[in-house]
From TrEMBL:
This is NUDIX hydrolase. The keyword Hydrolase applies. Keywords: Hydrolase. GO terms for molecular function: hydrolase activity. Its cofactor is Mg(2+). Pfam families: NUDIX.
């Protein structure tokens, strides 16, 4: 076994569970350049720690709520769908934007029923993530349940090619093969795998 030399420089700090707050970009102002009911594209004047300024575009988005069901056989309810923006296919959880004034967990339950036909029982918060926080303020809130009732064909069946119960034990392989391309959903499925398997 090869031993690594001790650090002789302070460029790399040791891990700290509290994190650090010594290098911070500061937004001086922000102006909307385009907006619609889904998002806005803004331009911010950002001051760097050394005093320089830069123009930084950002996208402001509504929060997203996602949910899935894990059944008694440790299978997870997923959607197989195409994303035209990246021209890619992959497994996803039912998800959508949270409407103004809507409770996030309620939005997750609504999306699950609309996109899969399964009405969830009590939802458990799994995680909240910022999938691209260098460009957007989007936050994805992900829930799961082990209780659900099939209420009929999904209203929003156009959202996916098919809906399937996928064994949780195969999730790491699906992620490794790139079959769960959405980062937040991959993280959520790996966490569910960790909790249930």
């Amino acid at each position: 076994m090869r031993l690594l030399p001790e650090r002789s420089c302070c460029d790399i700090a040791p891990y700290s569970p509290e994190g650090g707050r010594t290098v911070q970009w500061t937004k001086q102002n922000e102006q909307t350049r385009y907006s619609n009911r889904w998002f806005s594209v803004n331009l911010a004047d950002v001051e760097l720690p050394d005093g320089r300024h830069l123009d930084h575009f950002l996208i402001r988005l509504r929060p997203v709520a996602a949910a899935t069901v894990v059944n008694e056989a440790n299978e997870v309810l997923l959607l197989w769908r195409h994303r035209f923006i990246t021209d890619s296919w992959g497994w996803e959880l039912a998800a959508g934007v949270v409407e103004d004034g809507e409770d996030v967990a309620r939005a997750a339950a609504r999306e699950l029923e609309e996109e899969t036909g399964w009405r969830p029982g009590p939802l458990h918060h799994l995680m909240s993530v910022e999938p691209s926080n260098g460009l957007t303020d989007a936050r994805h809130h992900i829930y799961w349940t082990d209780e659900a009732e099939y209420v009929g064909h999904p209203v929003d069946d156009f959202e996916s090619d098919r809906r399937e119960w996928v064994p949780l034990k195969v999730v790491p392989d699906l992620v490794a093969r790139g079959e769960v391309p959405a980062a937040g959903m991959a993280a959520a499925l790996l966490l569910l795998h960790h909790l249930r398997i």
